[in-house]
Design brief:
It is built from 9 helices and 16 strands. With 378 residues, the chain is an alpha+beta fold. The strands form 3 sheets. Strands 1, 2, 4, 5, 6, 7 and 8 form a 7-stranded antiparallel beta sheet that branches. The termini are far apart.
């Protein structure tokens, strides 16, 4: 499991050492660096996945398009280089990437694996020098699922892809229906199986959808003579299946997240931006509980959220014993100009076994209390 992410001169961070847990919740104001944490991991995934033998970090690809070196190097303190480090178990990995301001990829200028280092490597495999280890980490980074906030909306038709080419749902959830069709009979991790449904992907996803949307059902039909399928959704057991456009955005936004989670294996990485999007508050709280269940089942989850309901769902899961309190890591981000008294951009409240938060930094899901105090003064 990844236990820490280190960034140096990356985007808005001059220096960051961010502890990670089985479930890590990123919160904070807009433009405070939450997505930058996601982007750092996504860049590693993108390069390993699309350019297995590359000695350069690809800033633009299928997963993310971050522009040029100038866009990803901290413009206040950085020059031509940034560093990215991971602690995986007992081993620390560190890369430095260097590039001219207008380059769309950056050269690997330094690699350190467990204290063994190499400068300006002329050959790498999955960003690792051959024979140095790190294969397990590289495989997990390659298989990482990153779901952005800008997900695919309802569609008339969904493309079918070879699962060897698209093994994850994709950043917009564009491959979710294809994965559900081609891998519907794959078994789900034991810790994620609902007992009142068969242990296979399609049945588990369908049952999970019912938890969020009572009466929901799924129907996937292949279109003859085409590499495509249609998705039928219903919102009541007493109705027929409808085209997705007629069932509301919430269903098609939650579906790829559920597919990504139940398709994951032990120690896989799942990154999710705004898991609460288009969900009613009760659904947002249920999403927090679900993410805790995913983490408890052995999938490492990193979620960025603006929802106090998602946080409270996680707290509820901790109180109910689904996830140990130390396994839920909370981080609150501030923009650089609004950093705390110690200059840090991140504060990290903790949870106890009852799901209680030990500290509430200014701006940390406190808007409801502020609003209530405002109205109380009328």
């Amino acid at each position: 499991m990844l236990t820490r992410l280190d960034l140096r001169h990356f985007k808005c961070f001059e220096r960051l050492q961010l502890p990670l847990g089985p479930l890590t919740l990123l919160s904070g104001t807009n433009a405070s660096g939450k997505s930058s944490v996601m982007h750092a991991l996504a860049l590693l995934h993108q390069t390993i996945r699309e350019h297995e033998w590359s000695t350069r970090l690809m800033l633009n690809g299928v997963t993310v398009r971050l522009g040029i070196a100038l866009d990803v190097i901290d413009q206040e303190y950085g020059r031509r280089e940034f560093a990215l480090g991971l602690v995986d178990g007992e081993t620390r990995y560190l890369w430095r990437f260097r590039g001219e301001r207008h380059e769309m990829s950056m050269a690997v200028s330094y690699v350190n694996v467990g204290g063994e280092e190499r400068r300006d490597p002329d050959a790498l495999h999955r960003l690792m020098p051959r024979g140095w280890g790190g294969e397990a980490l590289a495989r997990r980074l390659e298989g990482l699922s990153y779901l952005t906030a800008e997900r695919l909306g309802p569609r008339e038709v969904y493309a079918l892809e070879d699962p060897q080419m698209t093994p994850v749902v994709g950043p917009r959830g564009e491959h979710a229906v294809s994965l559900l069709h081609s891998g519907g009979d794959e078994t789900v991790l034991p810790g994620l199986r609902l007992k009142d449904a068969l242990p296979t992907r399609l049945h588990q996803v369908t049952r999970r959808m019912e938890q969020f949307f009572p009466g929901c059902g799924l129907e996937i039909r292949r279109i003859p003579h085409a590499n495509a399928v249609t998705l039928g959704l219903r919102t009541s057991k007493g109705t027929s299946f409808h085209r997705p456009i007629h069932t509301g955005f919430g269903l098609t936004q939650v579906l790829p997240l559920l597919v990504a989670a139940v398709s994951a294996g032990p120690e896989d990485l799942l990154l999710v931006e705004n898991p609460e999007v288009h969900l009613h508050p009760s659904g947002q709280a249920a999403m927090g509980e679900f993410l805790a269940e995913v983490a408890a089942a052995g999938v490492q989850v990193l979620a960025e959220t603006h929802s106090d309901h998602v946080l409270n769902g996680v707290r509820r899961a901790v109180k109910n014993g689904i996830l140990p309190p130390d396994d839920a890591v909370l981080h609150f981000f501030r923009p650089r100009g609004g950093a705390g008294d110690d200059g840090s951009q991140v504060e990290s409240p903790g949870l106890d076994a009852q799901g209680r938060v030990d500290a509430w930094p200014e701006g940390f899901f406190d808007q409801f209390d502020k609003d209530m105090n405002y109205f109380a003064g009328w």
